[in-house]
Design goal:
Distance between the termini: 73 Å
Strand order of the largest sheet: 1-2
Structural class: little secondary structure
Oligomer: single chain
Radius of gyration: 26 Å
Largest sheet: 2 strands, antiparallel
Number of helices: 1
Strand content: 5-15%
Helix content: 10-25%
Order of helices and strands: EEH
Shape: flat
């Protein structure tokens, strides 16, 4: 027995634009302590008060590349 609006083809449910797969509607959310208050409402975040320093992720040594090319 299929729910209303579900299409079936060769014994399998067909998903498409008019019948999206149920798991495709789920979203992932990062949750941490203090993100929500005791009532489940999202707390406001003061971005100006947050320190977000820029970090150097990667350094490329140009001299070794140019030496390897010249040799």
């Amino acid at each position: 027995m299929l729910a209303t609006g579900m299409k079936q083809h060769n014994g399998k449910i067909r998903y498409g634009l008019d019948n999206p797969q149920p798991l495709s509607q789920l979203r992932t959310e990062l949750v941490w302590d203090g993100k929500y208050d005791e009532y489940g409402s999202r707390r406001t975040v003061d971005i100006a008060g947050c320190a977000m320093p820029l970090q150097k992720i990667e350094t490329i040594d140009d001299t070794s590349i140019t030496v390897a090319v010249k040799v």
